[in-house]
Amino acid sequence: MKATLSADTQADIGPKIRKDFDFSVVRSDLNAINEALDEDTQRGTDRIVRAILQDITELEIAQKQKPGVPRSETRLKNVCGKLDKLEKAFGDYLAFAD
Question: pLDDT tens digit string along 44-72?
Fold first, then answer.
């Protein structure tokens, strides 16, 4: 998605977010993985799962644009920051799985 925004700062990434990060699917998948982990690990991953789900919601809100109003540089940085935050949260989650 960052590459898409780099190529076109006005790109509508909303449909891609909804497709790639379908909230209910992501939540279900992460919870299924969590069930396979031991209880101590689950304490750490539960917090990260909640953060991932919150980051997805924040990203979808941040990327929205009003029709005919171009995305400002500040808003673009905000969207890219949300993408970075989500990437870090997934990385943190995967670190528990190792």
Answer: 899 999 999 999 999 999 999 888 899 99
Identity of the residue numbered 85:
K
Q: What are the angstrom distances between the C-alpha of 19 and each of 69, 70, 87, 90, 96? A: 24, 23, 16, 17, 25
Long-range CB contacts (within 8 A, 24+) of 38-41: 41/96
CB 4 within 8 A of CB 79: no
Contact between 45 and 27 under an 8 Å Cβ cutoff? The reply is: no
CA atoms 53, 71, 77, 83: torsion sign = positive
Other CB atoms within a 10 A radius of the CB of residue 59 amount to 21
